[in-house]
Amino acid sequence: MQEVDQVSSLIRDIYDAAVDPALWGDLLGDARDFVGGSAAVLYSKDMTRKSANIYYDDGGIDSHYKQLYLDQYVKFDPTSTAEFFVEIEQPTATADLVPYDEFLQTRYYHEWARPQGLVDHLRAALEKSGTSIAFFGVFRDQQDGIVDDEMRLHMRLIVPHVRRTMLIGQLIDRKSAEAAAFADTLDGVSAGLFLLDAGGRMVHANASGQAMLDQRSVLRVGGDKVSATEAESDRELNRVVALAGCGDAAVGVKGIALPLSARDGERYVAHVLPLTSGERRRAGASYAASAALFVHKATLGAPSAPETIARLYHLTPSELRVLLAVVQLGGVPEVAEALGVGEATVKTHLHHVFGKTGASRQADLVKLVAGFSNPLVN
After folding, report:
1. Residue 189: CB partners within 8 Å, gap ≥ 6?
2. Which SS3 state, helix, strand or coil, does residue 201 take?
């Protein structure tokens, strides 16, 4: 009965924070004590830029280490790649994302977590977009031990309310970012750009997009509906565009990028950006559009959401980490040092990557990743 009263009181305070964000500091301290840990934080990660932003915390992480994480160690966080695959509101511990023995070998653990006595982190995704994820997380120190079932249960009890409060109060202020993102899609985009309604009917196409439709090689239009020329790709495109009508969270969970094939065998990549939440909804209302569709030929550039590559080639999170590190850094020794694991571990994962992708050289992996460049990332 005491726990029921504690949960009820905590949930009430959570919703109070929707109208008074100043309450979040003390509230996170109460949430930390209820879930069971040493520090609690509301934060987001931009997976493409390898950056993070802390919105509110309970003061449990020293300010020096918070800044170190934001400035440096977010780039070495071994859980970041796998976090693309987490489900909304699902409590996820470190060992759910990366083998714990590998985690203990990383620079992130030895140089950032271990000096603070931190041994684990339980996080739950609150909202996902194509490149970023917002989290509620609770850290565990040596005294707490690693995440257990009781901690997961307590997290599940309050996470839905934290998420609703975040949405109600617009805790994570993406107004400027979303407005800028929508404006940028319309200004100087070399990729084919299509504004679509939830049924896939075209509201607007830029010059590059219209040229694609005229060629009827990778896309075509009939009855105002934009379709992929290849049947399986068209089914997936219809599914993702329909999901875009449900907003960022739905598209983020299912993925917003997919490969397309042209009649001549050329590879293209399609990216879907939802226009049905926040500032994007207001910006897109005059067009009656629920999604912006970008289609471009596979060329060297910034990689798209790694989830797309992992899904296509059935890569595990560890294999995907090694693939991306090889593309960025080159040799096995450099990858091992950057990821904080042994060279033998890197070679094992690299062998699996070669087998699954059909590549035979590291140069082939660079070309493979280049084929999924993302027009939404500068």
Report:
1. 206, 208, 294, 375
2. strand
Instruction: Check pLDDT > 80 for residue 9.
Output: yes
Residue 104 dihedral angles phi and psi, to the nearest 5°: -70, -10
Total-model pTM: 0.52
Per-residue confidence at 301, pLDDT binned at 50, 70, 90? very low
For 20, counting Cβ atoms within 10 Å of its Cβ (0-12 exposed, 13-18 middle, 19+ buried), the class is: exposed
DSSP E strands in the chain: the ranges are: 39-46, 51-57, 118-128, 132-141, 192-196, 202-205, 219-222, 225-228, 257-261, 267-274, 291-297
Domains of the chain (ranges, CATH numbers): 2-173 (3.30.450.80), 176-297 (3.30.450), 306-370 (1.10.10)
Judge whether 64 and 51 are in contact, CB under 8 Å: no
The DSSP line for 69-113 is HHHTGGGG-TTTTGGGGPPBT--B-HHHHS-HHHHTTSHIIIIII
Q: Residue 2: its pLDDT value, please?
A: 65
Burial annotation 264-297 (CB, 10 A radius, 16+ → b, else e): eeeebbbbbbbbbbbbbbebbeeeebbbbbbbbb
**Residue 372 carries which DSSP code?**
T
